Amino acid sequence: MKKIIYLCLLAYLCLYGKAALAQLKLNEDPSTEENKFSDLQDLKPLEIGDRVPDLAIENVINHREGELRISDYRGKLLILDFWATWCAPCVKGMPKIAALDQELDEVAILPVTYQDKEEVEKLFSRLDYLKEVSMPMAVSDEQLRKLFPHRTLPHYVWINGEGVVIAFTGKEAVAKDSIRQVLEGEEMLETKEPPKALFDRNQLLLMGNHGFDEDKEILLQSVFLPYIKDMPAMYKVSGKPDRSRMRILLTNSTIPTFFGLAYGVGKVEFNRNRRALEVDDPGKLRHSLSRDDYDEWKLANRFCYELLVSPKYPGQEYDIMKEDLKRMFPQYKATIEERKTEVLALVRTDDSIRLGTAGGEPYSDMDYVGASLKNKKISLLAYYWRYYLQHLKLPIIDATGMDYPVDILLEGKMSDLGEIRKCLRPYGLDLIKKKMPIDILVIRDSERKNDN
C-alpha cells in the first residue's frame, strides 16, 4: 500500500513539476531558506498590523556578513529609515539617526536606499559630519521598497519586537522621547497613511469616452481638475521632437506655476524666483508660512491640468494653454517684463583657462555633494542649482556666454554657495551675486470694468 502511495505521489510531481513543488513548499516552516522571497512579485505592500516576512536583506554595508534577516531584530523595535543621497533632510539627519541607534539598546534603526553602494559611499566620504557614521545600511534595495511603498523621503516604518508593523511616520516621530514612550507602551504614534496608488505620470490623467475605433486619436483635449489627494505636485512636458503631438501635464500645482510654464514656452522657466506677484490678495497665489491652514488652502488653490495637442495644431500647445488659463483664471493676467534684478550669475573669471570636452556619451548629474558634466553645455549647472540653492531665493543665470559642450567635475556641497565657488575656481568660473536685467513674469489682477 505504501509503495502504491509513493508511486502515485511521484507521478503527480512529474506531471505537475514545479507548480506542485512550489505548493508543497508553502507548507514548510516559513523561516527556512527554501521559503526565502526571491521573486519580487511575491511581495505585496504591508499595512499596520501585518507581520513582516522573514526576508533576507542583502547588500548591507558596514556589516561583516553583508546580509541581515528581519528575524535578527526580533525582541527589538526596528525602524526602517528610507532615504536617498539627494534628500537633504535625510542626509542632514543621519548623524542623529546613528546616535539614536547607538544609544538605545532596545531599538535598531536600519537606513534603506534603492541607490547602490558606490553612490552611498561617495556621499559619506565627502561630508565630514558623515565620516563617523558607520551603522549598517541596506543599499540597492528592491524588496523593502516593494513591501513599504512611499512617495516622500525620509519615510520611517516602525516594526515591533514580534515583527509586526505598528506605524508609518515622518522624521518628527523619530526622537528619543517618543521612542521611549512607544517602548513603554505609553504612546500610539500618529501614522501616515500609506499611498493608495502610485501615480504613473506617463498615463493620461483623465480618460474620456471609450468604445470608439481604436485608430481614433484625440485631436485636442484640455482638462482642469481640483486638487487630488495623494497626487505629487509636478509637471511634465512630452511629445514628438517636431512638436507635432504634445502633452502638457501639471498636477496639484499653484496658479503661478501654470502661468510660469505657459509663458516660458519651454525656453525660460519662470519659477518662483523669476515671478512677481503684483495682486491685491497674494494669499490665493502662494501660501504664507505664518499660516497654519495649508491643508485647507491647497484644496482651494492647487489644481491639475492636462493638455493633449495633435498634429492638427503643430507648435500651438503653449498658446492653447494660455487661452485655457484665461478661461480658468480670468481674475489674473500675466506679462513678461525685463527688470534689473539681483541674481546668482555663473560667470567666467579667467578666459585663459580653456574649457571643452573630450567627447563621448553626453552625461550630466548633480546631487547633494557634487556635480558632473560630460560633453554637456554648462548652462545645465544653473538649471540644477535652482533646486539645491532655492533657499537663497535668487534667480540663477548662466552668464558665461559658453554655448558649447564641456567636461566639468565639481566635488563639494551643492547647497553651499561658498563650496560651489571654491569648486568652480580651477575652471576659471564663479557664481556671484549681481544685478542684471532679466525677463520676469509679472502676474497682476485683471482690469475689470464697472458694472455701471
Features:
signal, Glutaredoxin, isomerase, disordered N terminus, antioxidant activity, four-stranded antiparallel sheet, alpha+beta, 452 residues, globular, isomerase activity, Thioredoxin_ResA/DsbE_sf
Provide a short characterization of the protein structure.
Residues 46-188 form the Thioredoxin domain. The chain is 24% helix and 27% strand. It is of the alpha+beta class.
Care to describe what's here?
This protein starts with a helix and ends in a 7-residue tail after the last strand. 24% of the residues lie in helices and 27% in strands. The longest helix has 24 residues, at 2-25. The chain folds into three domains: 28-183, Glutaredoxin, CATH 3.40.30.10; 220-330, no CATH class; 340-438, no CATH class. The radius of gyration is 27 Å and the shape is globular. Helix 7 (255-264) runs antiparallel to helix 9 (317-328). By secondary structure, it is of the alpha+beta class. The strands form six sheets. A four-stranded mixed beta sheet has the order 5-4-7-8. The chain has helices at residues 2-25, 88-92, 94-103, 117-126, 143-147, 176-183, 255-264, 294-301, 317-328, 379-388, 417-424, and strands spanning 56-57, 60-61, 68-69, 77-82, 107-112, 137-138, 155-159, 165-169, 220-226, 234-239, 246-254, 275-278, 302-309, 332-348, 363-367, 370-377, 396-398, 405-411, 429-445. The chain is built from eleven helices and 19 strands. Mean pLDDT is 85; it is low at 1-38. The relative contact order is 0.10.
